[in-house]
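Protein in question quoted in full.
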Amino acid sequence: MSDKDLYRPEGIDDAFSHPEPEARTAEGEAPAETRATPSGSSQRAPRATGPDAATPDARGTARSGEAGAPQLPSLGLQGTLRWVWRQVTSMRVALMLLMLLAVAAVPGSVLPQRPQDPAAVLTYLQDNPRTGEWLDRLGFFDVYASVWFSAIYILLFVSLVGCILPRTKAHLQAVRNRPPRTPRRFDRFPAKAETTSTATPDEVVEAAAAHLRGRFRWLPTFRVDVSTEPADVARGLPERRTVAAERGYLRETGNLVFHLSLLGLLVSVATGQLLHFRGQAIITEGRGFANAVVDYDTFESGSLFSPSSLVPFSMTLDSFDAEFAMDQVAFAQSRDFTANVTVRNPDGSSQEEQIKVNHPIVAGGAKIYLQGNGYAPEITIHDAEGQVAFAGRVPFLPEDTMYTSRGVVKVPDTSPGLDQIGLVGYFLPTAEVTEDGARSIFPQPANPLLVLEVYRGDLGLDDGLPQNVYRLNTDTLTASVDEAGDRVQLLVAPGETVDLPDGLGTLTFADGPVARYVALDMRHDPALVWILVFALGALGGLAVSLFTPRRRVWLRAWSEEGPDGEASAPRTVVTVAGLARGDDAGLQGEVDRVVESLPGTEQATDLPAPPERPTRTPGASASRPTGPARADRPRKADR
C-alpha cells in the first residue's frame, strides 16, 4: 500500500504517521515535496515506499508496521493514574466492592473466629491440620481484621469519597443556577394547557409564581424566575410575561445524603469495631463482680481497646426473683425476671438497681443486660484420702421451660496418685422420680435433686488447651458402671452426702435454698448512636431521592384584543407547559393546578395536537418536512 492510497483529510496534519522532518528551504521558496490541491491548499507529496523506504535510517530509529500506520499515544504516568482513579470512583466499581464486602464477610460467620471462640479455632486446627494451617495463614480465623478484608473496606471507602465529592460540587453549582429560560414553543411538551383570563398579565404571573413557590417562603416548592419577553414587531408578537419554575433539587440532595450516610456508617462501624468491648459474666446470689478483664468469663474487644480504659466499678447480686404462671392455660411459663444488684462506683458511692429482660442498666459507660439465669447448687467433693478436692457453686444451664438444667463438675485437684474425677448430669428444681427416670415438673425449687454420672481418668486440663467449662470430654475418661454394666447414676438431694463409685470419695449437696445465678452481658460501643443517626439519614435520603419528582413548568401570558375587536375588553392569553425527567404521571396534574390557581380564568383546554408527520411515497422527494418531528420531546433549542 503506497502513500497515495492513504486517505488524508485536507487541512489536517496526520500527527500519528510521524512524518519525516522536511529539509529547510530558502525563504519564499516552496518545498519540493508539496503540490497544489484542487482546493488551493498545499499537500505533502507522497513518499516512495518499498524495501528501501522501510529500512531503518542512520539514526537507528526503526518504524514498526506499515509506513503511515497510526500510532496510539501512551497514557503516561499521569494519564494512568487518572484512569485508575476514574475506575475506582465509578458507580460500577462501588457496587462491585459493596457486593464483594458482603461475600468476604461470609467466612466470618461460617468459620470459628479467634477473638470470639479461640477454643473452637484450636479444635478446628487439630481436626483439619492441613486446611486449617492455610486458612490461618490467610486470616480466615480473624476475617474482620485480615488484610484482604481491610483492603476491600478501604477501597469501598475511597470509592464513595471519590464519587461523592465531584457530585457534591456539581450539585452545589446546580443549586445556585436559575431555572432554564422559557422555551419558544410549548406544543412539543408532554404536559400543556391553555386558557384565557380577565386579569392582567402581571396579575397572572404574580399568582402563578406564588402558587409555584408554595406557602413556605423558607422552603419553596419550585424555584421561580419571572421575566419579560420584549415585543417582536417583525413576527407580530406583543410583549409577553413569562414564568420559569423548576423543582427536584432535593432529589439529588437526598441522593447525596444517602451516600454520605453510607460513608458515615462505614466510619462508625469501623470505629466501633476498633474501640468496643463485650464481656459475659455469671454471678451467683450474694457474690460480686469487678469490672476487670480477669473477672469476665468471656471477653472480646477491638484492636485499639485498652484494658486500662475500663471504669473500675463493682457489682453484687443481692437476690434474683423469678415468677412463673400457675394457671392451667400457661402453666410454668415465665412471667418476670428481676436481678436486684448493688453497684459501687469508683468514687465510693453506691446505688441499688434492678436489671430486667430488655431493661438494661448503665454502669461504667457500658450497658448491662440480663442474658440468662439458672441454678447453681453448692457441691463439695472429698477424694479417696478424705481431702477436699472441690468445693463451690456449679452453674447448671437450663434446657427446657421446667428448668431441667445440665451441668459439669471437673475435679482435677485430687491427691497425688489418684485419678481425676468428672461428673456430668442434671439438676431438677422440682424432681419427680418414676420407674422411667427422673424429670422436673416445675421451674421453682420445690423438690431439688441432682442426677449425676461419674467418670475418672485424665480430664485433659494439663494439655494447655482451653476447654468449655460446661462440657466434659469423655474420650480419655472411664465411666463408672455397676455390676450389670450400666452407668452409675447418683441421686443427691440437698443436705445429703453420697459415696462416689469405685472408691473415688464422697459428694455432698449443701443444705438450704439452692442459689440462683444470672448471666450478664456487658457491652460498650461508642459508635452505636452514630450508627443509628447515619442509618436514619440513609433511609431518609433514599426516600427523598426516590419520591421527589424532578419537574420544570413554564408559563407565558400576554394581552390581546377580544374576538369582537373594540367591542370587548382585552383578554390575557395564558399557555402553560411542563417537562419531567423520566416518566411522571403527575406532571399534567401539576400543570392543571397552575392553571386553576390563576385569577379570572376560564376552563383550561389542552393545546391542539401537532399535525401528523407525512408519509413518504416512492419517488417522492426525500426533503425533510418542516413540521414538528415528535410532539412528546422538545428540540434541543427549546430545552
Notes: Residues 147-176 form the longest helix (30 residues).
